[in-house]
Amino acid sequence: MARCARNWESVLRWTQRETLLPRQKETLKLFFENERALQSQPSNGFNHIYYVAKYGEFIKKPYEQAELDELKAYLSRLSTQQSKTPKISILKFYKWLLEPLGERRKLSEEGIEKPLNGEDRGHLSRLRRAIETIRKSTKNHQGYKQKLPAELLVPEDVLKLINASVDIRDKAIIAFLYDTGCRASELLEVEPASRNNPIANATNISLIITS
Asked: Which of 35, 102, 93, 32 minimizes the C-alpha distance to 64?
């Protein structure tokens, strides 16, 4: 998941990552300038820059040369995430890429500019297919569904366990596990804070559990 950015300078650094190709950096920096002009907060634009940068690292070629199969493969990877945000970021990027060509196409149809050449028409068609693919993937996004246990302990259950324990150390361990939600392996690393701690007389948690 993308991290939050405190300022636009930290967002800009993502456009110049060493893992990106020079042409990717140029395109991503232009996209960054567009985001900075539109977004009121850097955190709002950071997700878009972050996921587009990751997409560039995935395809390992200039963005405009990405094949539809490569885009589908990346979208498939994003489908394992719970949020639609990564796909929405890629969709916004492709719409931004399409905008200049779409405007030129409109002006050419109005006779204001020359008609698009074959290369530009092919590029326009690829971008439109890509956008449609992303839209369908976003619409059908299922995401990762976190599964919870069928039965969860409620405070009353935990209190029964504590009351049923004879050793005060066991009571402390049960209460600590429930209150913090830590794993047993993390509990093993906990050290008593003071002599007043009910588990302070043990040299470590392992001795507490096995005693």
From this structure: 93
Looking at the structure, do residues 73 and 120 belong to the same domain, yes or no? yes
Per-residue DSSP letters for 26-69?
HHHHHHHHHHHHH-SSHHHHHHHHHHHHHHHHHH-S-GGG--HH
Whether pTM > 0.70 for this model: the answer is no
Query: Residue 175 contacts by C-beta under 8 Å, 6 or more apart in sequence?
Result: 158, 162
pLDDT digits (tens, 9 = 90+) for 90-101: 999 999 988 887
Pair (66, 104) in one structural domain: yes
Range of the domain at 105: 8-139
Specify whether 174 is located in the same domain as 129. Answer: no
* Cα–Cα distance measured from residue 81 to residue 123, given in angstroms and rounded to the nearest whole number: 30
Q: Read off the pLDDT of residues 35-88 as tens digits, 9 standing for 90 and up.
A: 888 876 777 788 889 999 999 999 999 998 899 999 999 998 888 887 888 898
